[in-house]
């Protein structure tokens, strides 16, 4: 029996969180604790400290942002999906940091009623201005279909790419120096393994190669800014700064949900990323059923590591799907219809052979090298 | 109590939705399917979807798309755009649409109203009149083809004619107020209301719910259609589908209704 | 299996959509054979009374449906003009109605108080449930439905009226006699209220 076969026949799950060998590269220590927990305890926690004790740092950044933005209509920009993290970021920016952010929403065609309702409530409740970038749906649809046909696991790339690219492009165009995001350790400290198809950042070469092979109409207005461009050019050369306020305040999921509910009548989602109907379908059905990857495993593990969920609850929750079969059937039909294909055609893609990004032209190695260079330069402080 | 209907009006162009200003420009606001879906989830009273290029381009209604939109609607749907024949109207109704809007055909070939009405029932025949104030005098002409063709016919006489022929509803679309959000033309609406014996719906100018309240306070029961108000938010006109809840409708509109 | 009687009139697809989303078996019945194993019938209808009656009579399905409803006790739900067809007659036309529920269909214009109102009665109106019909289970309070009609049903036996609405005049907007049900409004286009009612019908 070869080593790889041996490894596949063995199942292990972390003793502290619920990460397991569905991440084929996972490493456990002698106590059966996974590398994600170790990274959290050794690297993240000592500097993060559950967001406590950072208020001075936060106010310092806030002072800077206010200074730079003086006399402008807004002093920073926040990408708002209507989900918890971005919604709470908007709240922190306005109410705790005293900033005048522009809320920036990208509509890629899959918003849920709940997401747009939450955005409306926040805009009204915080008295902030909103700007929406609507991605041309015919192009979006073409790219999403291309991705589906490419059979790579990372089917949310077309949406993610549009969200970030539109935000950075807008910030650059309007010379907005500070971009605030909802990125945070509290609910995201357990990284989604790359082996689950979470491709690192926006690789224009990969996306365009997939689109060239399977697409049928040109991408004229679809926003796409390559990772190396926004990291190196926007951030390093133009000095655009990405700031994550949620790491500087105590951010407990249930408390934040409660506060937003009480203050703004904001509605919590059943699970992370449910603000987009496609993402919900992709993460709760397509990825686990077709590829065997459960992103919820990482989401719950983050909550376990940060003490917001017990390991037992996480195991209970992950052992049953978020959506029942009937709901999934409706969603399957909706996704097919929305993409302009039949249910049978979508099923055919679902049943097709899985591939990876390595089957297409990509800059993976360069991106990896780039990360290391930026890290060495001190620009990228990626803790994981 | 019969409530004034608050009706989002969505304009389709080249498979997407746009929002115009005075029938011009046309800002892209996204994919019709998701917009319809969200209005459905928000339990909108009714929905009007108009393909604004079908007549100008001389194309047939996009039946496949209409069928799909209808399947997403658990509310009455009124479709308009490029409907010129009885067969088209019948086909649209068969796809699950409640009402068919006739616009340029109603002006150019009014008899078509009786023919369509005889087939699908007058309750399903909506005549949409794009109207523009005449210069100097307080009267409105009926226009067509995206406000490029003036029929030079007076609105009041056209309404008199179409309701005799079998229209079940009249939608007045005020060209000069389209997308301006500066309020409805209440004086003229009131004038039309007094001669209109079928349900009347007005479109053009809604900038707030109190604009809608103003109409029903003065004119009584009138259908209140709106574009910009229900798809834009704030000073940057950010695209964000919104629709008032029952409570908000009650406080801002229903409780101001003048009873006939 | 719920069969939607398709005799060429009415918004058939809307019912199919609602039941599909509820995961309840539904079929469009285009000919008598399609009715055979149905456990419930829905009789939709729009447009003029005579046109609707003639179309139903000509569809070839009337006899089978009548046999199922009157002899077989199969529940039937008439909707809008489909409800009016359940009556004996309508002032709107000269065709005889089905007579499954005694009554006649009157125009709003002849009813006191409604002369000056726009016709048709169009929009969302309150529906007050006045019996304890399972059709309105869960819809006891503040139910509103979408109406689109110019004529209304007057029951011969007022106890067969199970819900009322008002448009210048109080009128029966839902009727029931044994296994025969009718609603004047459009449940298939009345959001969650209508979905509930159609689900209730499937549970009868």
Describe the structure in your own words:
The complex is a heterotrimer of chains A (384), B (260) and C (204). Chain A is mainly alpha-helical and 384 residues long. Chain A is 52% helix and 6% strand. Chain A contains 17 helices and five strands. Chain A has a five-stranded parallel sheet, with helices on both faces. In chain A, strand 2, helix 5 and strand 3 form a beta-alpha-beta unit. The longest helix of chain A is centred in the middle third of the chain and has 17 residues. The radius of gyration of chain A is 21 Å and the shape is globular. Chain B is globular, with a radius of gyration of 17 Å. In chain B, helix 4 runs parallel beside helix 6 and helix 8 packs across helix 9. The relative contact order of chain B is 0.15. The two termini of chain B are 12 Å apart. In chain B, a hairpin with a 4-residue loop joins strand 8 and strand 9. Chain B is of the alpha/beta class and 260 residues long. In chain B, the strands form two sheets. In chain B, strands 1-4-5-6-7-10-11-12 form an eight-stranded parallel beta barrel, surrounded by five helices. Chain B has a two-stranded antiparallel sheet with strand order 13-14. Helices cover 35% and strands 28% of the residues of chain B. By secondary structure, chain C is an alpha/beta fold. In chain C, strand 10 and strand 11 form a beta hairpin. In chain C, strands 2-1-3-4-12-11-10-7-8 form a nine-stranded mixed sheet. Chain C has five helices and twelve strands. Chains in contact: A-B, B-C. At the B-C interface, helix 3 and helix 6 of B face helix 1, strand 7, strand 8 and helix 5 of C.
């Amino acid at each position: 029996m070869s080593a790889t076969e041996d490894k596949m026949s063995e199942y292990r799950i972390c003793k502290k969180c619920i990460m397991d060998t569905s991440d084929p590269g996972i490493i456990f220590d002698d106590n059966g604790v996974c590398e994600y927990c170790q990274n959290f305890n050794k690297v993240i926690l000592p500097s993060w400290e559950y967001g406590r004790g950072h208020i001075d740092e936060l106010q310092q950044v806030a002072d800077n942002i206010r200074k730079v933005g003086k006399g402008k209509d807004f002093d920073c920009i926040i990408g708002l999906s209507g989900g918890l993290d971005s919604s709470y970021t908007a709240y922190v920016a306005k109410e705790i940091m005293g900033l005048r952010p522009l809320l920036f929403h990208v509509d890629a065609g899959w918003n849920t009623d709940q997401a747009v309702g939450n955005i409306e409530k926040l805009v009204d409740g915080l008295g902030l201005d909103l700007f929406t970038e609507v991605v041309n749906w015919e192009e979006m649809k073409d790219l999403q279909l291309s991705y589906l046909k490419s059979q790579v696991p990372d089917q949310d790339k077309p949406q993610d790419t549009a969200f970030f690219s539109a935000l950075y492009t807008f910030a650059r165009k309007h010379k907005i120096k500070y971009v605030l995001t909802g990125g945070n350790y509290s609910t995201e400290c357990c990284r989604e393994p790359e082996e689950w198809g979470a491709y690192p950042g926006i690789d224009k070469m990969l996306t365009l190669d997939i689109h060239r092979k399977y697409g049928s109409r040109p991408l004229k207005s679809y926003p796409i800014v390559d990772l190396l461009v926004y990291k190196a050019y926007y951030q390093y050369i133009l000095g655009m700064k990405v700031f994550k306020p949620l790491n500087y305040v105590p951010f407990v999921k249930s408390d934040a949900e409660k506060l937003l509910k009480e203050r703004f009548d904001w509605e919590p989602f059943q699970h992370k990323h449910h603000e987009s109907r496609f993402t919900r379908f992709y993460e709760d059905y397509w990825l686990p059923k077709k590829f065997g990857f459960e992103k919820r495993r990482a989401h719950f593990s983050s909550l376990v590591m940060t003490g917001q969920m017990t390991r037992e609850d996480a195991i209970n929750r992950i052992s049953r799907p978020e959506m029942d079969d009937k709901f999934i059937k409706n969603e399957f039909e909706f996704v097919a219809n929305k993409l302009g294909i039949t249910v049978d055609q979508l099923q055919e893609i679902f049943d097709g052979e899985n591939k990876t990004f390595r089957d297409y032209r990509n800059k993976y190695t360069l991106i990896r090298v780039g990360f290391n260079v930026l890290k060495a330069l001190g620009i990228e402080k990626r803790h994981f | 109590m019969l409530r004034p209907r608050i009706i989002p009006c969505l304009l389709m162009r080249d498979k997407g939705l746009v929002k115009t200003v005075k029938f011009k420009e046309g800002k892209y606001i996204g994919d019709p399917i998701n917009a319809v879906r969200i209005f459905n989830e928000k339990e909108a009273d009714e929905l009007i979807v108009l393909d604004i290029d079908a007549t100008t381009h001389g194309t047939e209604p996009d039946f496949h798309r209409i069928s799909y939109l209808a399947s997403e609607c658990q509310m009455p749907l009124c479709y308009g755009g490029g409907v010129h024949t009885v067969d088209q109207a019948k086909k649209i109704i068969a796809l699950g649409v409640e009402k068919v809007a006739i616009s340029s055909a109603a002006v150019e070939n009014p008899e078509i109203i009786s023919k369509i009405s005889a087939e699908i029932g007058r309750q399903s025949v909506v005549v949409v009149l794009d109207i523009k104030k005449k210069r100097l005098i307080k009267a409105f002409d009926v226009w067509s083809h995206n406000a490029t063709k003036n029929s030079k016919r007076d609105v009041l006489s056209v309404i008199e004619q179409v309701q005799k022929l079998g229209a079940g509803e009249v939608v007045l679309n005020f060209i000069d107020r389209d997308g301006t959000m500066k309020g409805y033309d209440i004086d003229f609406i009131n004038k039309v209301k007094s001669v209109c014996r079928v349900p009347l719906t007005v479109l053009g100018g809604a900038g707030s719910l109190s604009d809608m309240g103003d109409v029903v306070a003065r004119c009584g029961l009138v259908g209140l259609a709106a574009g910009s108000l229900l798809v834009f938010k704030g000073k940057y006109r950010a695209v964000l589908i919104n629709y008032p809840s029952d409570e908000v409708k009650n406080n801002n509109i229903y409780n101001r209704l003048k009873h006939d | 299996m719920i069969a939607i009687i398709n005799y060429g009139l009415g918004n058939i697809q809307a019912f199919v959509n609602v039941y599909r989303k509820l995961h309840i078996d539904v079929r469009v019945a285009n000919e008598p054979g399609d009715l055979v194993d149905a456990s419930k019938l829905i009789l939709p209808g729009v447009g003029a009374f005579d046109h609707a009656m003639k179309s139903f009579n000509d569809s070839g399905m009337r006899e089978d449906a009548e046999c199922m409803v009157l002899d077989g006790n199969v529940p039937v739900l008439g909707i809008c003009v489909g409800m009016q067809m359940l009556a004996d007659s309508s002032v709107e036309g000269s065709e005889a109605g089905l007579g499954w529920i005694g009554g006649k269909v009157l125009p709003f214009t002849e009813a006191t108080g409604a002369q000056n109102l726009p016709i048709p009665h169009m929009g969302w109106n309150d529906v007050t449930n006045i019996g304890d019909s399972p059709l309105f289970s869960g819809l006891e309070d503040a139910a509103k439905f979408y109406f689109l009609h110019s004529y209304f049903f007057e029951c011969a036996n007022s106890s067969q009226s199970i819900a009322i609405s008002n448009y210048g005049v109080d009128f029966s907007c839902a009727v029931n006699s044994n296994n025969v049900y009718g609603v004047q409004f459009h449940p298939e286009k009345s959001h969650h209220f209508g979905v509930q009612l159609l689900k209730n019908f499937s549970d009868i």
